[in-house]
TrEMBL record, chain A:
Species name: Cyprinus carpio
GO annotation, biological process: mitochondrial translation
GO MF terms held by the record: structural constituent of ribosome
Pfam families listed in its UniProt record: MRP-L47
Stretches the record annotates as Disordered: 230-254
Designated name of the protein: 39S ribosomal protein L47, mitochondrial-like
TrEMBL record, chain B:
Similarity comment text for this entry: Belongs to the universal ribosomal protein uL23 family.
Protein name per Swiss-Prot or TrEMBL: Large ribosomal subunit protein uL23m
Record has Zinc as a keyword: no
GO process terms (BP): mitochondrial translation
Length: 254, 161
């Protein structure tokens, strides 16, 4: 129970990771979950857990939260000057879907701060003309953030569908542009109606008469290419069947 | 419009009322990234220099630092750095270096900040039997082989015998 509370506390405040040297077995269990890529290294920094910095990497305990906040733009001091900094696998969408909305909100800020730190490091390495230690961390964080975004969008979509039946959050409609192409026009907010908006009235959402023949031609081109593709597929399958008839496969078995 | 961040602490309904001016945009998960940079020119001790996205304003920077990093901010000044479109690639096409915005943030409460040295010299002690140890040993041997005979006293190989 206390371990759960401790892990919740560490989840609440990322700064706790610099402070709390929890040596309980459950904490290290939480820190080294199965999907970390560095199974053998006990002291790796785990990206896929609440504690970005494994408690064992901490220095001596100091009881205040990170002072001045600007220290969070930099890595832990013991990682300065290292050639490589170990980190775990990025979060997957499956793992993120288990989390509650508050947890995802907090995790977003954890990712944001980590990304800021990595960008600071990258810029400084460019300045000093040195190689950046472990640049793959940036990609991992970016992917984790994208997946978090996907999960939140999924939840919002489902809520909206259940409550209002709207498929999209932002209203829009299908329109035809000057080139004859049909596209999804997304509405914007305006303080005035459209018939008072001179710039909007200059935009033409219809195809002029001289463009109409080209719409048909482009449609024909598209259909032609689709049919050619299907025919090519069928031809390929036929020639493959001719090369490898089914009878020989059965004959070789016996 | 400037953007106020919603962080863990401040979901109070009192914060949301705006009696004057236009409605203020509030976002839940900001996508802005701040990069702390070492100043090119000497700056006063309380000034911190950031590279921020072009869409951010001074108010956004202040709210960002105060809410997310809890850094007390006294003043923010920004400028946009225009980067060259003159360079050309191997196909003689012009290549634009992206523009960026720089923010000079002055800290409140008489705090100072000095950009630290992130790449101190470290004595690398590899553990026994590891790959890095063997590589290091190999490189040492190679270097030793390249060196000339110390008994020649610095005389080059050109002089025979």
């Amino acid at each position: 129970m206390s371990a759960a509370v401790a892990s919740r506390l560490t989840a609440v405040c990322r700064q706790f990771q610099r402070v709390v040297t929890v040596s309980s077995h459950t904490q290290t269990q939480y820190a080294t979950r199965a999907f970390s890529t560095f199974h053998s290294c006990q002291q790796s920094r785990m990206y896929d857990s609440w504690c970005f910095r494994s408690p064992m990497n901490n220095r001596a305990v100091h009881t205040s939260c990170v002072r001045k906040g600007l220290e969070e733009f930099f890595d832990l001091p013991e990682n300065w000057g290292e050639q490589t900094v170990k980190s775990g696998a990025p979060w997957t969408a499956k793992q993120l879907r288990v989390k509650s909305n508050e947890d995802l909100h907090k995790l977003w800020y954890v990712f944001l701060k980590e990304k800021n730190m990595l960008l600071t490091l990258e810029q400084e390495t460019k300045r000093q003309r040195l190689p950046m230690p472990s640049p793959e961390r940036l990609k991992k964080v970016e992917r984790s953030m994208k997946r978090l975004d996907t999960v939140v969008e999924e939840r919002e979509d489902s809520l909206r569908l259940l409550q209002t039946g709207q498929e999209r959050g932002r209203p829009g409609e299908w329109r035809r542009n000057v080139f004859g192409k049909t596209f999804w026009y997304r509405f914007r907010e305006h303080p005035i109606p459209w018939y008072l908006n001179s710039r909007y009235k200059r935009r033409r959402f219809f195809e002029p008469s001289h463009v109409a023949p080209y719409t048909r031609l482009s449609l024909e081109k598209y259909l032609r290419s689709k049919i050619r593709k299907e025919k090519r597929e069928k031809r390929n399958q036929k020639s493959l069947a001719a090369m490898f008839p089914k009878k020989t496969a059965l004959a070789s078995d016996h | 419009h400037h953007i106020r961040m919603i962080s863990e602490g401040s979901c109070d309904t009192e914060d949301w009322r705006n009696d004057l001016g236009n409605p203020q945009l509030r976002i839940f998960r900001p996508t802005f990234n701040l990069t702390l940079v070492r100043p090119g020119k000497e700056q006063p001790p309380d000034t911190v220099q950031f590279r921020i996205p072009l869409e951010m304003t001074k108010f956004d920077v202040r709210n960002y630092l105060e809410k997310i990093y809890s850094v007390p901010v006294a003043a923010v000044r920004t400028r946009i750095q225009y980067c060259t479109n003159k360079k050309r690639n191997h196909l003689n096409q012009r290549v634009k270096r992206p523009d960026y915005k720089v923010a000079y943030v002055q800290l409140a409460q008489q705090q100072t900040f000095q950009f630290p040295d992130i790449f101190p010299e470290k004595d690398q002690k590899h553990e026994e039997g590891s790959v890095e140890e063997m590589q290091e040993k190999f490189m040492e041997d190679e270097r030793q082989r390249q060196k000339s005979d110390p008994r020649r006293g610095g005389v080059t190989e050109w002089f025979g015998l």
